[in-house]
Amino acid sequence: MKNIGIWIWTGVLSIITIVVSLGYYASTQTLFFKLRDVEVIKRRETRAKRINLDEFKKLPQDDKLIPSRFNYSINAIFVYPNDTNKWVVLCHGVTENKVSSIKYLNMFVEMGFNCVIYDARRHGNTGGIHSTYGFYEKYDLETVVDYLHEHYGEDIEFGIHGESMGAATVLLYAGELSNKAKFYISDASFSKFADQLTFIFGQYSRIASPLVLLVTNLFFRFRSKFSLYKVSPIRVVDKIKQPILFIHSKNDRFIPYQQTVELYNKKEGPKLAWYPTRGGHVESFNRNQQAYTEKVTYFLENDVGWEVEKNREQDKH
What we know:
about 325 residues; 8-stranded mixed β-sheet; 8 strands
């Protein structure tokens, strides 16, 4: 009997050690994931002909470092080629940076608006130690919006577009912090960060994932002072009164598009959803550029009330 007891305790301690180790590893991978190199992103977007950096640099713009409330600087570029008080703030996805937002900037500039692109916390030229998938990032978005009003006009009207982590950040900002924006566009957001991590962990071990998730969250709270359970756009999306355009590719294998369906169903008031069949994670624009532009145009004109300039590219020739 004594030997059996020792074996049981040894087994229990082994399981605990494994789960704690997995939780620590998972928290490390989540908080400190490897970022894509800026030059790699530039080459990728240029080769795909989604951006032309020489043309982008010709646009009137201000490259700024804005103090965050967390003692680091946020790198933002304010681009204003159009004589308008209407702006769109663009939030990129995880591992990316503001260069990834230029393709959307081009779309909105052609529509007649001005834009802000910026590096999220820990990405690009913005400081920060941990990535928190919207928890702290929403405060940086608020800081960028406040700077926009303070330095480019109190009469500004603006909307916010975000993809992936940026989309979750947008919804958390709108549902928890501010209702100043005229509209929001959420491209491939998760509904609950806990569900997204469970989905990822479940690809490795369906049995261990709930327990590993619990331990991972303990490490989040200890290492970065936030709970993954509070990174939950679905919890606040019904508080957002402004129009939201939800976009999510049905073939997304990283964040299942059903998470956006949940967000759309819970959102009250003006809303529009589009689930293209072509493209993977945050590839809705890349694979359906004309349809994407048409959907955004329809949303802005019919749900937001902004007049969109059309055929500007043809007018130049």
